[in-house]
Amino acid sequence: MPVPDPRHSRPDGVQPARPRDDAGDARPADFGFRTVTVGDKRRMVRGVFDSVATRYDLMNDLMSGGIHRLWKDAMMDWLAPRPGQHLLDVAGGTGDIAFRFIDRSRRNGGRTPAGTAAPTRVTVCDLTPAMLAVGRDRGVDRGLVDGLDWVAGNAETLPVASSSVDVYTIAFGIRNVADIPAALAEARRVLKPGGRFMCLEFSQVQAPVLDRLYDLYSFSILPRIGQVVARDAASYRYLAESIRKFPTADRFAAMIAEAGLRQVKVRLLSGGIAALHSAWKV
């Protein structure tokens, strides 16, 4: 797992990312309904989450009516964390998946068959240090410090050793990545043989009436909520647009397979509003 360099430590405990030249990548990428460069998208995504970091969890509850909590619980049900695993949670920002993973691993045993302590290790990696700082504070409030690291980094070039983690998760983050195939290739690289990949992401609504209601909510109501609660309508308009630009669940499953991960399976949640994708490195 990454080891913080004391020469470059931050007062908030977040390990900084390795520097990179975002401006130098001129390939096209979607930023909502706009076409920008890959480099610009990385910079703009950081700006979005810098803006909403301190209100991100509240906005998630307001945006979904709290249903995102049920989706994350469903993710843990399927993942079935075990004691002693090392999780890499990418785009894990404020720690929701990390905290659930630690809690579930404890409930699922907490000891090896030999009876010795089996600590669970979690590395949270996020592009935006402001999100990580919020997550770290939440972890401290829960008494979760040992075995939990917060690392600033890009999903496309993870600061993590190859074949070093048992589980890779990413929840509501993959659609914000500038180069999704590169991120999926990185997921395969860092997983150990036999390691598990799982992604929770918004998807395309299947029901014909529900999809119209969802569009009305996403493009008319959600930005207004963002303006009132987070004082940032533009960021939430981008988040709504990014959902519409993300591939369908079947197409994303094919992309996961193209990255070299195997046994790809999909579960649609809430009529297709969200989807879980599971795969393995074999």
UniProtKB/TrEMBL annotation:
What EC designation does it have? Answer: 2.1.1.163, 2.1.1.201
Q: Which reaction does it catalyse?
A: a 2-demethylmenaquinol + S-adenosyl-L-methionine = a menaquinol + S-adenosyl-L-homocysteine + H(+); a 2-methoxy-6-(all-trans-polyprenyl)benzene-1,4-diol + S-adenosyl-L-methionine = a 5-methoxy-2-methyl-3-(all-trans-polyprenyl)benzene-1,4-diol + S-adenosyl-L-homocysteine + H(+)
A Gene Ontology biological process in which this protein takes part is: methylation
User: Which intervals of the chain form a coiled coil?
Assistant: none
Which Pfam families does the entry mention?
Ubie_methyltran (PF01209)
Pathway given in the UniProt record: Cofactor biosynthesis; ubiquinone biosynthesis; Quinol/quinone metabolism; menaquinone biosynthesis; menaquinol from 1,4-dihydroxy-2-naphthoate: step 2/2
Q: Where does S-adenosyl-L-methionine bind?
A: T94, D126, N154, A155
> Which InterPro entries does this UniProt record tie to the protein?
SAM-dependent_MTases_sf (IPR029063), UbiE/COQ5_MeTrFase (IPR004033), UbiE/COQ5_MeTrFase_CS (IPR023576)
Q: Which UniProt keywords apply?
A: Menaquinone biosynthesis, Methyltransferase, S-adenosyl-L-methionine, Transferase, Ubiquinone biosynthesis
Region Disordered: which residues?
Answer: 1-30
The biased composition feature labelled Basic and acidic residues covers: 1-11, 18-28
Q: Which Gene3D superfamilies match?
A: Vaccinia Virus protein VP39
Matching NCBIfam families = MenG_MenH_UbiE
Q: Which family does it belong to?
A: Belongs to the class I-like SAM-binding methyltransferase superfamily. MenG/UbiE family.
Name of the molecule in the record: Ubiquinone/menaquinone biosynthesis C-methyltransferase UbiE
Q: Which organism is it from?
A: Tistrella arctica
Gene that encodes the chain = ubiE
